[in-house]
Design a protein that fits this description.
By secondary structure, this protein is mainly alpha-helical. It contains 5 helices and no strands. Helix 4 packs antiparallel against helix 5. The longest helix is centred in the N-terminal third of the chain and has 30 residues. The mean pLDDT is 86.
Length: 137
């Protein structure tokens, strides 16, 4: 197994492990409702913030080294998703702290999450929770 394939397996395994909560908690609801979801900013912040740890060694939060070692398609998709998750997570957390109770526009994160999931699937590591047929509702 090449280094990139091994790293793809690692970062896609992390997506498998941490992405299901976001997928089942918000992603499906947003995709099936035209972008409307019942979301509590602090819960959303927690769910998307965990996406930013993909590729990180145990006990750490920065997975940039692992993501950089992945294949171009998986690495690029994960980099975009981690970036967008960090932005959305911060916006949702700030909203919760300020008491405004506002959910940031999640379009870029939804696109990046979809791309990362598809690239992992194409690399042979489709997350068990990802079922495209349920998104056609």
């Amino acid at each position: 197994m090449s280094t990139a394939s091994s790293t793809d397996q690692q970062v896609c395994g992390d997506l498998e492990r941490v992405g299901g909560a976001f997928y089942n908690g918000y992603y499906k609801q947003l995709m099936l409702s035209g972008g409307h979801a019942d979301a509590v900013p602090i819960q959303l912040a927690a769910q998307v913030s965990v996406l930013t740890t993909i590729g990180a060694p145990d006990g750490e939060i920065d997975g940039a080294t692992a993501i950089a070692g992945a294949s171009q398609a998986v690495g690029s998709a994960m980099t975009g998703m981690v970036r967008d998750a960090a932005i959305i997570g911060k916006g949702a957390a700030d909203s919760s702290v300020s008491g405004v109770d506002h959910i940031p526009d999640m379009t870029s994160l939804l696109t990046a999450f979809t791309t990362a999931t598809v690239e992992c699937s194409k690399a042979g590591y489709q997350p068990s929770w990802f079922d495209p047929s349920e998104l056609t509702g």
